[in-house]
Structures
1.
Amino acid sequence: MTESGRRQTHLTVRRRRLLEFFFCQSLGVTWKTLEKDAFRLEPCASDRLIDYIDDFLNHPEYDPGDAPIPQKDGSICRLQ
């Protein structure tokens, strides 16, 4: 995979994990419950919406399942 492709993959994962985290915090359900919904909604969420969610969640580094959330630049934090 090219570096560009890897970065795009990380950004896609970022979108889905932030949506999962947001729904988990806002709706009070387990992240696993909404995993498939977040996967379906991820392509529809605008970059602006994802930025708002990231700000609202105070820029989390890990999702509720302890998976790293890629940063806006596509980088990934090291595992805890």
2.
Amino acid sequence: MRRKWDAKTKARIVLAGLMGECVNDLCRAHDLRPGQYYKWRGHFLENSYRVFEKPPMAPNDMELAAENEELKKLVGELTLELTSGKPAR
């Protein structure tokens, strides 16, 4: 039967190997085949740059950002109206 490994456990095992722990000892301790470890390591290294990427905005966040920009524009127009005495629209 196949085991399901959670992402945190996989990362912890791969990092231990990258930090110098013997891969054979790691695999033996976690009842893992070395081939599986190297697949995880490859995937980890290929995708590690994503840690430094800005996460995409959720749809709700995008709506809030658009509303925020609209409100800033409105505040600017009203400020101009108040300071100049003329309608800005």
